Write the structure tokens for this entry.
Amino acid sequence: MAAHRRSCMILLTVAVASALGAAGAGAQQLFIYPQRGQSPQQQQQDRFECHQWAVQQTGFDPMMGTAPPPPAPAPTTGAVRGAARGAALGAVGGAIGGNAGRGAAIGAGTGAVFGTMRRNDQIRQGQAQQSAHAQHSGQQMERFNRAVATCLSGRGYTVN
């Protein structure tokens, strides 16, 4: 029974170590050196336990991946839509002034400019949201790596 339990623990440890390597491919890699002559099996067990501890401390598990960034909202306006709105308003204003066609043309041009500006603002806001999400994910990974390094240092490893 104890041998079976130990075999399961070793398999689980190897699986976690493999997943850690895959999950951390884009993240900072930790270099770990045993200062007290720990065996490879002990190193795997310590790494597994430190991973669990770091998840508890940070609330972040890189094996689960990060949440995908929020999708950029589709722009709700643009040059064509702005031109149509501007033309409609310009036609009304032009009709009051006696020249609906000229008012529509001026309104369409003005509407297109403002529609394009509004659309560009919406695109920039979406990009800023995605950038903030990426920065937050990087900070979570950095905190997690610091927690793992702290745990392993306490167990007699040099971590860089």
